[in-house]
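Incident log, structure service

09:12 report received: a user says their structure output differs between two submissions of the same chain.
09:20 pulled the input from the user's history:
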Amino acid sequence: MPVPMEYRLASQDFDRFLAEVAQETGLATRNQAYTTTQAVLLAFRRRLDTAQAIAFAQVLPAMLRALFVMDWDPQEPRVTGWDHAAMTEEVRRLRIDHNFSPDTAIADVVRVLRGHVDATAFARCLATLPPETRAIWALAGP
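09:34 re-ran on a clean worker, output below:
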């Protein structure tokens, strides 16, 4: 079987994704967009149980899937609560001295990510997650 295109083009797709996040957030570099993206994914992951997180990772593009699970300790206690302000503050705390995430970081990353996933598979996955998760991902619109 040949190498799936998802993996052959993963680096190019990820670079395009980061460029779109930089544009959407008003950040100056892909490095800043990377930190913002990672922080948003981690804030989301910390609130899911292991099975939910694995299901969510399955609908992400290859490089975002890797970023979502990178350095994950499944034994780490889950964060409770989906308060948007608290999550935004959590996003800003990742690499705090090099983090330029705007107040709109979560909605911005969500909006870009929605354009990089299979909409049907993503919706099917979200339907299995807690209602609070759907509210976060609804920030991008239908």
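09:41 both user submissions now match this output. Likely a transient worker issue. Closing.
09:42 reviewer note: The mean pLDDT is 92. The chain has nine helices and no strands.
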